[in-house]
C-alpha cells in the first residue's frame, strides 16, 4: 500500500509539473515520458536490440513536430514556394500520412539488415509504436486547458471505474484481456468521467454546454477505457504483467499513459477548432 501511495505521489507531482512549467520544459517532460514508453515497449516485446533505432526515429518526429514554425522558416530560406505549401497545410497533411509508413518501414528495414529476418513480435511492436508515437505527439501539442480536460477524462474515468467495479461489479467486461474489469465498473466510470469532464470543459469554455458535448465526452471516456484495454492486450500478447517497474506499485510509464495515448489525438484535433 505504501508503495502504491509513493507511486501515486510521483505521478501527481509529475502532472503538476506539466501544468506549471513553461512550454519548452513541458515538451521536454512529455518527450521524457515518450522515450521511456518506447523503451518499455521494445523491452516487453523482447526486442531490446531495436530500442536505439526506435528512440532515434521517435526523437526525429518529436523534434520536427514541436519545431514546425522553425522548420517552415528554414524551408523559406531554401525554397519559398515549398514553405508556403507547407504552411498552407497541404504538405503537413502529407507528412502526417507518410509518418506511420516512415516509422514502420525504417524499423523493418533495420531489422532485415541487422538480423536478416523479422522477429515474430516485431509487427505487433511496430503497430503499437506508431500508435504510441502519435499519442505522445498529440499530448505534446495540447494547450494547457485541453491538457486539463484530458486529465479530467482519463483520471476520473479510471478512478470511478475501479471504485464502482470493486463495490458493485459482478459481470466481467473482457476477462481474456483484463480479468478485473467489470461491466458495472466500466459504465460507472464512463458516466462519472463524463460528468466531471463536462464540468471542466464548460468551466474552461472549451465546449458549449449541451447534450452533444455530454455525448462527445462520454465517447471519450469509452475511448479512454479502450486505450487501457489495448495496452492490456499488448502485455498479454508478450506475456508480461506490467510494462515496467519505474513507478512504485504502478508498473511502467506505458501502464500510466495507456488511456492518455487514446484520448490525446482526439483532443489535439479538437484544439484546432477551439483556438
Q: How do the SSEs run, as a string of H and E?
A: HHHHHHHHEEHHH
Mean pLDDT: 86
Unreliable parts? none
Beta-strand content:
under 5%
Shape: globular
Short key terms for the protein model shown above:
275 residues, mainly alpha, two-stranded antiparallel ribbon, 11 helices, 79% helix, 3% strand, globular
What does this 3D model show about the protein?
By secondary structure, the chain is mainly alpha-helical. The chain has one domain (2-274). It is built from eleven helices and two strands; from the N terminus they run ααααααααββααα. The chain has a two-stranded antiparallel ribbon with strand order 1-2. A hairpin with a 3-residue loop joins strand 1 and strand 2. Helix 2 packs antiparallel against helix 7, helix 6 runs antiparallel to helix 7 (122-140) and helix 8 (144-168) runs antiparallel to helix 9 (183-203). The chain is globular. The termini are far apart.
Question: Could you give the topology of this structure?
Answer:
Layout: H1 2-20, H2 23-44, H3 51-66, H4 68-78, H5 80-88, H6 90-115, H7 122-140, H8 144-168, E1 172-174, E2 178-182, H9 183-203, H10 211-238, H11 253-274
Antiparallel strand pairs: 1-2
Helix pairs in contact: 1-2, 2-3, 2-7, 3-6, 3-7, 4-5, 6-7, 7-11, 8-9, 8-10, 8-11, 9-10, 10-11
